């Protein structure tokens, strides 16, 4: 045996195997949570405050009060009686930016046919100036509020952005959509739940 070559220590091999298994486990958990959420099944979501939140279709939407870009408070409870789309997004999120024209077009078409609908864009973990600039440049016609510390997105179990939650007039979650959404999908879902 060559005295210059040393065998790998067993502890390093075991540590590497454990790290690989933990990584695989986390990937499976994230993927299965996302698939379960799309199917409307309960999903246990970890928030930054170490609390646990269960968001599922058929359950009441978590209440929140956030401020618009000009500082006006908006509460979800104020929209009871309206079919509401809640979109979690950020100005630094490319899929969020790509879906914005679809949301604007869907909002304008739906609002013209039924004034009893509302869209709320929740700018999450983002800078106020960036949110304002993006909203102005794109002439976003619906409500934009800020969730600077991500507490509301945690309460809704948002795993990635964009995430869109469809809430009926009674405040019940009817559909959760992970990822970018098209105009036709928004219109179909909103109409199906009463918008």
Q: What is the secondary structure topology, with strand pairs?
A:
Layout: H1 10-38, E1 43-46, E2 52-55, E3 65-68, E4 73-75, E5 83-89, H2 94-113, E6 117-124, H3 128-137, E7 143-147, H4 151-155, E8 163-167, E9 173-178, H5 183-192
Parallel strand pairs: 5-6, 6-7
Antiparallel strand pairs: 1-2, 3-4, 3-7, 5-8, 8-9
Account of the protein in words:
This protein is an alpha+beta fold and 195 residues long. Helices cover 38% and strands 24% of the residues. It has five helices and nine strands. Strands 4-3-7-6-5-8-9 form a seven-stranded mixed β-sheet. A two-stranded antiparallel ribbon has the order 1-2. The N and C termini lie far apart (77 Å). Mean pLDDT is 81; it is low at 25-52.
Could you name the CATH class? Alpha Beta
CATH superfamily: Glutaredoxin
Q: Which CATH-level-2 architecture?
A: 3-Layer(aba) Sandwich
CATH fold descriptor: Glutaredoxin
Structural class, judged by helices and strands?
alpha+beta
Briefly summarize what is shown.
By secondary structure, this protein is an alpha+beta fold. It has helices at 10-38, 94-113, 128-137, 151-155, 183-192; strands at 43-46, 52-55, 65-68, 73-75, 83-89, 117-124, 143-147, 163-167, 173-178. The chain contains five helices and nine strands.
């Amino acid at each position: 045996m060559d005295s210059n070559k040393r065998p790998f220590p067993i502890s390093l091999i075991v540590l590497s195997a454990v790290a690989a298994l933990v990584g695989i486990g986390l990937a499976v958990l994230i993927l299965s949570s996302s698939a379960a959420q799309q199917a409307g099944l309960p999903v246990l979501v970890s928030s930054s405050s170490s609390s646990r939140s269960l968001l599922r279709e058929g359950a009441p939407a978590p209440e929140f009060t956030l401020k618009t870009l000009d500082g006006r408070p908006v509460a979800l409870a104020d929209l009871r009686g309206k079919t509401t789309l809640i979109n979690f997004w950020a100005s630094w999120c490319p899929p969020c930016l790509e879906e914005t024209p679809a949301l604007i077009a869907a909002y304008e078409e739906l609002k013209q046919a039924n004034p009893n609908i509302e869209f709320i864009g929740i700018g999450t973990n983002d800078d106020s100036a960036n949110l304002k600039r993006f909203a102005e440049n794109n002439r976003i016609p619906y409500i934009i509020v800020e969730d600077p510390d991500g507490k509301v997105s945690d309460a809704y179990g948002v795993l990635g952005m964009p995430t869109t939650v469809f809430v009926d007039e009674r405040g019940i979650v009817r559909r959760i959509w992970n990822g970018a959404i098209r105009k036709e999908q928004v219109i179909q879902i909103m109409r199906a739940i009463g918008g």
